[in-house]
Every structure is written in structure tokens, then in C-alpha cells.
Amino acid sequence: MAEKIGLQTLIDRSIRNMGAGINSVVKESAIEMIKQAYKEGIYVQITSGYRSFAEQNKLYAQGRTAPGKIVTNAKGGQSNHNYGLAIDYVLLSEDGKKALWTVNEKWRRVAQIGKSLGFSWGGDWKSFKDYPHLEMMGGLTLSQLQAGKRPVLVSLLSNKVSAKPIKTSPIKSSPSKSTSKPKTNTSKKTYNLPSGILKVTKPLTKGAGVKAVQEALSALFFYPEKGAKNHGVDGYYGLKTADAVKRFQLMNGLTADGIYGPKTKKAIEKSLK
């Protein structure tokens, strides 16, 4: 019988693959994800983390001007990996010798663990699903990263603030480098969560109560629509808000029906403390 791969081996390999330019909170959270999955008999290894612009361009050339199959549509500066904010993972066989790429319950369980630690998962994307991909954008868009802005991430494990990510030049030229720092809240925001039931109706339920739920979920990284205007916080309880509620419920041991009620309200309030 083959010997089971050790936890430290998975961690060591993953640290090497994430690279020196990975954000410190992303790194810490990825290692914790590996540890939690290992306890459940799931063997996870990070295959990719920080990529320089040159490395990204080399990857982009594959299948185009270089041998191999096309593996990315992103040139240098067009991937969250280039800013140290994203990782890719794969499951391994028990002995650690075989990569298992089938997206099954175990794969999705790892994604759940990752999301509980603050990651967003590429498998939740609507247009192009990227199942190995996890990222922490800190509320910024790719365009903002390209313009030179950097997020300040806060670890859900240690409450530590991330060290400065690797420095990169803005994609678009600017007359001078900005000296302003990303805004962060030094005190916890309170949300006036409504009582009662909220669910998808015709016409859609709207109002301050719905918006409070959306804002509270967004503060916990369960965005109604990440990357859209205000990440989908619009005061309307539509399908995307119901999906955010469902994802939160799934991560917190509740019935994942997308309906906001007393139990979900209590769980959100507890998570915000």
C-alpha cells in the first residue's frame, strides 16, 4: 500500500508554487485551506500563485506563438495572478503522485473551505468558469489593479493586515505615482438587518432592508455580483442576491434555499462580530 502524502509536503510544495510575490494573507489562507482539507482526507496542492508579467506573457503565447494548447486569454497585467492575489489548486491522489482534475464533491468542498476563508471561487463565475481558481481582490477590480491601486487584505484567521503586494507599474501611464493609500475601515460597520422573510418575488422586493442584507453579505465576501457596480448592491432582492444568501447559508450550516429569514439573520450578525 502506497504511503500517504504528508501535510507538510503539500504545504512546502504549495509555498514554492505560490512564489515570493504572493500576498501574505492569500498565502496564509491558502495554507489553512490545505490543512482543513487534509483533516477531511482531501489532498490539495496549490499549483500557481504569483506570476510576473513576463511569466504571464509566456503563458499567453502558449498555443499561439509557442507550442502547446491555449491555457489563458490574459496577457501580462491582465490576470489577478500578476498582483499576487490569486491561486490555482488541484487535488492529488492519497500518495500525492497523481493530479486529479475531476470537479467532484471533494473539489467543491475545497472551494467551500476557501470561500469560508475569504476567497472568491472561479467556479462561481457565470460566463467562464475557472474551477481551479481562487482569489482575494479586496473589493478592487482588475482595472483598478492595472491603474496601480492595491488592496489591503485582512486575514480571517489572524486578523493581520496583508503586507504590501509585489510592486508593479500601472498598465496605463500616469504622470505621477499615487501616494494615497487604500481606504480601510478601522471600526466595524453596523448593519440594520431586517426581521421577517425576504425572497425572490414578482415584482422584486426592494428597499433599505434588502440593501442592508446585501451590504452585510458583501462585508463577509458573499457579493450579489462581484465586479458589477457596487458588487450588485442595489436594494433589490433578485436572483443574484438570493444566490449570495444561498452561498452564505451553505457555508454556515443552514438550509441553502436563498431565502433570508430569522436563522440567516442571526448567522449573518454572528459572522459580522
From TrEMBL:
Residues 73-136 form the Peptidase M15C domain. GO terms for molecular function: peptidase activity. SUPFAM superfamilies: Hedgehog/DD-peptidase, PGBD-like. It comes from the Bacteria. Signal peptide: none annotated. Residues 207-268 form the Peptidoglycan binding-like domain. InterPro entries: DD-CPase-like (IPR052179), Peptidase_M15C (IPR039561), Peptidoglycan-bd-like (IPR002477), PGBD-like_sf (IPR036365), PGBDSf (IPR036366), Zn_M74/Hedgehog-like (IPR009045). Residues 166-188 are annotated as: Disordered. This is Peptidase M15.
